[in-house]
Amino acid sequence: EAATNGTVLCGGSAGAGCWFTSMHSDSLRPDNVKHSDVVKNEMDDEDLIDWDYVKISGLGIIPTPGNIMAVPHFDRIGSNDISRSEHAAEMVACNSDVPAAIGIDNNAALVVEGDKAMVVSGDGEATVHIVSKDEDTNEISTTPLN
User: pTM higher than 0.70 for the full model?
Assistant: First the structure.
């Protein structure tokens, strides 16, 4: 209701991705819990990095064709030593229910107004990327938005 009334909706991290139909998440990270100190004390280092990113459902407020997945922290590597950008590309390549992804770097914002979008960079370098698959060659490409 707020979105249809013109209210500004914003957020960082999961708060940026939640507006899309789906988002890339590190919510299965073992130490990503309320009492992470307890988890860290009970697990060894190998167990703490043995997790994978997942696609979770969003609110679907930002309309996208198909099921384009938002990827916050696109330019970062998780505690599992896996790059979010590389994993997002793998998800687009291997999952028919993820036709493309919108990667949002740390220090970047994607501003959407109606059917127009623009990027705001907090440091002059961070940006937003489109990860897509060529239907003919199945080649994955990542294109920065300017």
Answer: yes
Residue of 52, 49, 65 lying closest to 101 (CA atoms): 65
Give ∠ CA 137-75-14 in degrees, rounded to 5: 100
Residue 146's identity, in one-letter code, is N
Residue 74 CA, distance from chain mean position: 6
Q: What tokens appear for 68 in the block? A: 């384009």
| Chain segment 117-128, per-residue pLDDT in tens | 899 999 999 999
Please give the single-letter amino acid code of residue 9: L
DSSP string covering the chain: -TTTTT-----STHHHHTTSSEEEE-TT-TT-STTHHHHHHHS-HHHHT----EEEE----S--SS-PEEEETTT-B-TTS-BHHHHHHHHHHH-TT--EEEEE-TTEEEEEETTEEEEEESSSS--EEEEEE-TTT--EEEEEE-
Residue 13 exposed, middle or buried by CB count within 10 Å (0-12, 13-18, 19+): middle
Q: Is the pLDDT of residue 93 over 90?
A: yes
Q: CA 89 to CA 139: how far, in whole Å?
A: 10
